[in-house]
Amino acid sequence: MKAILVGDRPVLAADSAILRTGEPLFIDGEISDWRSVVAPGVKISRLGTNIHIDFANAYFDSMAMFHLLMPANPDMLPGDLWGMSDRSISPGIFVELPLKGYADLQAGRNAATTRCQAPALHKQRLGVPITDHACRAIADLSRSVTFKTGDILIFPDFAIDLESPVIDTIIEASINNIQSLHLKIK
What we know:
Helices cover 9% and strands 38% of the residues. It is mainly beta.
């Protein structure tokens, strides 16, 4: 399985960058060096290469929210190396794609324990055109990449920035009011 962060310059993430669904995220080092970002992604559902944009929607059928632990300072790790950071991508549970092709995304941070003094933080993005972007990305990338069942495309352009991570908090995210992500930061 490969994960590709789709943007102006796609980034291929190492398999060691992806946590298993439900695993807590342990942050080493200085926590202020990092940002918590939650972004939508789709899962490839069939093998394909050189996929025409008119047929690209047949290659994905579910989406999830992903927590991305990204450097607070972009110069800390160049974009191409960020995808090599171990345990930097936390996947949520995949849900069926919305029929209308647009998704309302919500993400937030809450205290996991009573000793955590972090304030709650909730943000949303409404009407994200996930289907159109996924089709375009699949058509463009499949000219040089063979997609396999289970590969993931993540769209940081639609990310919800939850600022610097906070120890002893829970990150939750939903797609059209269906919970996809529940992540403990330790």
